[in-house]
What does this fold into?
Amino acid sequence: MAKELTEKQFLKRYDIHEFDIPLTSVDMAIFTIRGGELQVLLVKRAQHPSKGLWALPGGFIDLKKDRTLSDTAHRKLLEKTGVDTPYLEQVESFGSADRDARGWSVTVAYLALITCDDIVLAADESSEEVTWMSVEKVEQEMDLAFDHQAILDVCHDRLKNKVQYTSLPINLLPTEFTLTELQKTFEIILGIPVEKKSFRRRILDADILEETGGMKTGSNRPAKLYSTKPEGVKHFFSRSIEGPRR
Amino acid sequence: MAKELTEKQFLKRYDIHEFDIPLTSVDMAIFTIRGGELQVLLVKRAQHPSKGLWALPGGFIDLKKDRTLSDTAHRKLLEKTGVDTPYLEQVESFGSADRDARGWSVTVAYLALITCDDIVLAADESSEEVTWMSVEKVEQEMDLAFDHQAILDVCHDRLKNKVQYTSLPINLLPTEFTLTELQKTFEIILGIPVEKKSFRRRILDADILEETGGMKTGSNRPAKLYSTKPEGVKHFFSRSIEGPRR
DNA sequence: GTAATAGTGTCTATAAGACACTATTGA
DNA sequence: TCAATAGTGTCTTATAGACACTATTAC
It folds into this structure.
């Protein structure tokens, strides 16, 4: 029997290239509100496999640049949108023998929420086109690369679910907003109307907003502008929005 | 400029061994209730790295045997416990340059709930010892391999959190149980007392249990035995257990 | 003034917590 | 009978939904 190795010796002889291991990547569903609907950022693949198909932005971990998985996610988001401090949450990992033609692969899916104002979308070497697309349209009519359709579904479900008991939609609005704008954002994601008084009571009682002092004027009564207190971007309510009683 | 490759040509020339990619594994926090406390299954590592340290059970994806990530998780669970149809849920993936001495690595963490009755723990070539250990003790006094301490914390947090609004603890009990036993299980995980009447109302109104007809006799009034309806193992309540009001 | 949107008062409904009460067993 | 645990009746509390009401602007 061979003499036992020390951990140092073991690591010295260890060569990852000798093993059959899965490809590992990060993919993101970056959501925003545009044109009164929930949209998601898609890139058109400029490389094989699935060249020419629309896909969620993502890519491989850069073992040199990235110290952690969340670094990879932030880097990808920054590359595509120029934004680097949005709401970012890991959702789920998808791994199987057949989700990528190159072989067994694992992808870690992230969900990001950003306000689309002032975002300049940027293509890079792996994508020839970048665009915002209606989530509803993508889910009903499109055919995304790999299993990105399923990944988008899971991220969208996670978002819809969390909107029932958190303040996440705040992250989809600019820094100053009115309560009506915030309510509309909740309604767009939930897909149901929300009762105005309950909504305002809920948000204001949570003490997560500050009046900025400014007012939003339009063609009617002006509305108070609010901004979010630091912890307000990820507040958890003790009860869910229940929706209309029939 | 080179002629463009077809996808077929691209895939033929693709060799995963040419790339620097992270190691990818699956680790599990397998929870049970034993001795009136929440315990987690640990294995003592028989191989480098971290040889001799206690760790969460887990291992690499077997590209031949496993078609999906969840296959890997089920396989690992079966290897250690002999159980293969428990409650199993993916929790989060952890990836970084320094969590494993062998290099950049990603692990997908799963949470499993099983009843410890009739489980025969089995060591294999990568673990010389397998044991149940109090979660409280592990978190307070032990030093697990890799970042398994952090992974256990996250899985434990996920469990505590979900117990507030789901029926998950049902999965920690044998097929027949009394309402008092179920309540105790909730209390052990939550770490707070639960009000008896509220608890029974909540569980029975949810219509997730069936009376088996049997009674559990002891030295006092016998208690009705219940079993779970098929969908009852993962019921979501519309409101959370709030705990005592002060 | 009117139209339109902002914002409030106050009722009901639902489900949780509190807690005292009754019920059924073994010894 | 008593100790112990099973199980219930019913009040209070917290927060959501309903919906009509008032407030403030542009025109």
Q: What stands out?
A: The helical segments of chain A are 7-13, 69-81, 135-141, 148-163, 179-190, 196-205. The mean pLDDT of chain A is 90. The longest strand of chain A covers residues 23-34.
